[in-house]
Specification:
- This protein is mostly helical.
- The chain is 66% helix and 3% strand.
- It contains 9 helices and 2 strands, in the order H-H-H-H-H-H-H-E-H-H-E.
- Helix 4 packs parallel to helix 7, helix 5 crosses helix 9 and helix 6 crosses helix 7.
Length: 230
């Protein structure tokens, strides 16, 4: 491949991903066409197929990009805390943050999840991406709690599933009734009691405030969707 094409590929891919998110959110994953994505991005079908084999592959690339971005933002926020700020209340507040553009992603990922429920092959692929995200959440949560001098008393992967369910279920209600339940409200109200019930103080230890213990720092993994949790 010519060197110029190689250098352009990341820009092309980024433009297609941005266009895909906007197109899927506007028209729906199933109704949106590859032509619409290409037109919005300003590229040809040839450029599309040199990066993605199908709409499903495009969605999974969006999934990975979104998850990495959310985990990275949260890790940076946690790493910026001072030693005195490592409390369950402060961590819950960080986990409750919802970016203004999260609604578009929620629409897209919810529709693809419904598609996966109907399609066993899509479900298998989505489950693999979900598992990588949960592993990152579980790892990050374990490290963050250690900084606060606590440890989980339940399985970390199961607790990660609960956090995702709380976030996704809460957003579903918030986007229907934003005035009644602003995004992040359920996490702010119930995440601290959940953490208190599911963790214990590590005996004879002070909170660990060492560096490089951020939630998912240097993540290679994925979700969200639902997705902005500790």
């Amino acid at each position: 491949m010519p060197k110029g094409v190689t250098r352009r590929r990341p820009r092309t891919r980024a433009a297609l991903l941005k266009a895909a998110l906007e197109t899927f959110a506007e028209h729906g994953f199933h109704a949106a066409t590859i032509e619409q994505v290409c037109e919005r991005a300003g590229y040809t079908r040839g450029a599309y197929y040199s990066n993605f084999a199908s709409k499903e592959e495009l969605f999974l690339a969006l999934f990975d990009e979104h998850s990495d971005r959310i985990v990275r933002r949260l890790a940076e926020s946690i790493d910026a805390l001072t030693a005195d700020e490592y409390t369950l209340d402060r961590l819950a507040e960080l986990a409750a943050r919802v970016e203004p553009d999260e609604r578009d992603w929620y629409l897209v990922t919810t529709e693809f999840t419904l598609h996966a429920i109907r399609d066993p092959q899509a479900a298998w692929v989505l489950a693999r991406h979900d598992a990588r995200l949960r592993a990152e959440i579980a790892r990050g949560l374990t490290l963050v709690l250690r900084r606060a001098g606590r440890e989980l008393t339940v399985d970390a992967d199961r607790f990660a599933r609960l956090l995702i369910a709380l976030r996704e279920g809460g957003l579903a209600q918030s986007y229907v009734e934003p005035a009644e339940l602003p995004p992040g409200s359920l996490e702010r109200q119930f995440l601290v009691p959940l953490l208190e019930a599911s963790t214990r103080r590590i005996p004879d230890t002070a909170p660990d405030t060492g560096s490089n213990a951020g939630a998912g720092q240097g993540s290679q993994s994925k979700r969200s969707g639902s997705d902005a949790v500790i």
